[in-house]
Amino acid sequence: MTEEKKFLNVGLVMPIAPIDGCTTEHWIDVKRIITESLADITDYDTNPKIVSEGDSTGLIHKRIVEGLYTSEIVICDVSCKNPNVMFELGMRLAFDRPTVIIKDDKTDYSFDTGVIEHLNYPRDLRYNEIVEFKERLAEKVKSTYEESIKDSNYSPFLKSFGTFRVSSLKEDEVTPNEFIIRTLQDIQVEINELKTSNLRKGNQNYDSNPFKKRVSSLTSSRMFDAMLEVIDNLILEDTFVNLSTNELIPIVKNELNKMGFMAKDHEIRAALKNILDEYGNKILKDA
């Protein structure tokens, strides 16, 4: 009978968008090469995923942190020194968990992480060198992971600088119902953020938009921007739901007063009407 392989949870940190002349397709090819390399590890089954592609729902930033923390080993491609990649690498190293760093042959070493071995591969993905790289990567991942589980004092990075208390994430045990409620709340937050994002996108060209002239006759552009911020927050808090314009005016007025703006009721009413008419948000009931 064939012994069942252990599943090894491998997280990936790497660029996915065009940078430094490398296209999106280039990074898809790099990810495929990494996946093929890990498939050659005979002792483990793997399904490497970008850390933001975790199974949990919720905010992408939460998924990234969870992926960085829970992955049994992370492969980080620092090619082109993508800022997001470097930040996520720093977070993973702060967790002091097994990490394998790779980079292409056109990228220089970074000072802070130069003490860690990097596996190089050709940026042009030449076949012969990629074959060799895949073999070295498979062996490196296997040996790094197995060293980490055998050595209770394993430390891939922090031990080079002294003794530190390693960062950790709080893990709460919740009931199935609590988990479902939290998941739905995360989804609601994402939906609200999309609403806010759409509202802000509509205001990106505000300074060059004729709409500014209609509003500026009633209120200053700074007060209008403050009103947008207040409305953003009210949308996130679902305060807009089932409220009429008359009910919203004192709420908006109070928030503006806290920000140092003394707005009159007719200014707020006109600005609310213009904002909603301009951006097509049918949130308010008719007063």
TrEMBL record:
> Can you tell which superkingdom this protein's organism belongs to?
Bacteria
Q: What protein does this entry describe?
A: RNA helicase
Q: Which organism is it from?
A: Paenibacillus lautus
